[in-house]
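Why do we care about 3D structure at all? Because function follows from shape, and shape follows, mostly, from sequence. That is the central idea of this module. The next example makes it concrete: a single protein chain, its amino acid sequence, and then its structure expressed as tokens.
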Amino acid sequence: MKDPRDILCQIEDAKLPEDALELATPSGIVCLDDFLAAHTPEPQQIILGVLRKEQVGLMASNSKAGKTWLMQSLAVAVATGKMWLAWKTCPGRVLLIDPELPRYDAETRMKKVKEALGVAGPTPDIDYFRTKGRTLNLAQLRQVVRKRMQETGLGYALIIVDSIYCFQQGRDENDNTAQAQTMQELYELSEETAAAVMTAHHFSKGFQSGKNHMDRASGAGVFARAPDAIITLTELEEDGCYGVEATCRSFAKPAGFAVRWDYPLWKIDENIDHTALKTPQSAMKEKRKKRVQETLNLLDASGMTRAAWKQKCLNAGMSDGAFNNYFRDLALSDNPQVIEIGGRYVKSSR
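And the structure:
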């Protein structure tokens, strides 16, 4: 059995050809021909066609969209070699760093995700580090990861940092200089461990349909420039569905696709247009549709006079003007959902 203390040395040894070349001159600058003669092998792809070892990926979406569920499913998928969304994964050890969930939620969620992915029994290739309630920056986090690798003698294929804001310790997310340092620290984590690093971030507030997908992450522009892979989940017009787009430094741009939330997993829905992003207009239309349905639901099955129906809606918190608007949609449209019979309104049989 190898001495666990040798693990970091083994990682550095794996990169000796490149490091030795760059240290061959006092300046670190080398002739291009010498650089190309090194013939560095491609690091292992962890998410095939998206992210390799020694690269940093960023996954962004709007707040409370289900990013943590997605990161948990990524951990299980890589540890077991299963598909993640539309992409194949290469099996390897995973470290999932969770700064947000209480212990009970973390336990129950991981059990649900494993069950939904058809993973029964132990998952020894997933390490879990819950940091909620602890104050750690990325440099300290790197020290903890190093210590874990030393004590187990095992490295990682993927390290998930979910979410990056929890390790900022007061850095202004809009400050390019501060966030460049954040990204540099993530680079250092990936270089030192030889693992791929995936972190989660949130969108800026508001609708995202008018922005390039790489510009939807909140804060400094460095979030669009620095990561080796950027994956976004953007809300679609279809309720409960999101469009997935990815841009990768080292690979051709993957095809976009739509996913639908099916607790506890995001699942691909090929019947949904992944480019039909939610807009202010579509959001208002959806909101009105829901309000009209709520008004219809308040109509008794036996029928009601307009005055009684209106009063019931007012008692439920609806304004007088809102009821009149929704009443027109329901009763006075070309294809009414309610009809008047003997002074009482009933749901139509259409």
